[in-house]
Amino acid sequence: MYKIFILILLFSIIIGSCQKKEIISIEKGVVDHRFVGSWKLVNGNEKYTFFNNNKIEYISNSSKGEVYTYEWKKEGDNYYYRLWNNELDSWSDFPIKYINTNTIKIYSEFFKKSYI
After folding, report:
1. What is the pTM (predicted TM-score) of this model?
2. Spatial distance between the Cα atoms of 79 and 91, rounded to a whole number of angstroms
3. Which of 46, 56, 69, 70 has a CA positioned 20 to 30 A from the CA of residue 90?
4. Do residues 105 and 97 touch, judged by C-beta distance below 8 A?
5. Burial of 87 (0-12, 13-18, 19+ CB in 10 A)
6. What is the pLDDT of residues 23-54, one digit of tens each?
């Protein structure tokens, strides 16, 4: 009986370690690829970088240049965001609008595509 227990335990450890871990949102929201890349505030230092794995890095306009990491998704015509890798955070509306290949609008601010 003891040997069967050890065999089952080893089997479950092997199976558990072989599972593929995904970094994409648990919610599996759709990414709008038009936003992927870096965007800089027209008259400021704020910067958003959108990745194709549902991740956003936001650099604030403060003197410290704080970096915040968020998860984003698109459902229908609406966009949502929450803290990255934090299932306790709830999804909030993300008022983002695609203007053209070089300009997006987030809240009431315009951001230009950063190619550097």
Report:
1. 0.70
2. 10
3. 46
4. yes
5. exposed
6. 444 445 667 889 999 999 998 889 999 998 89
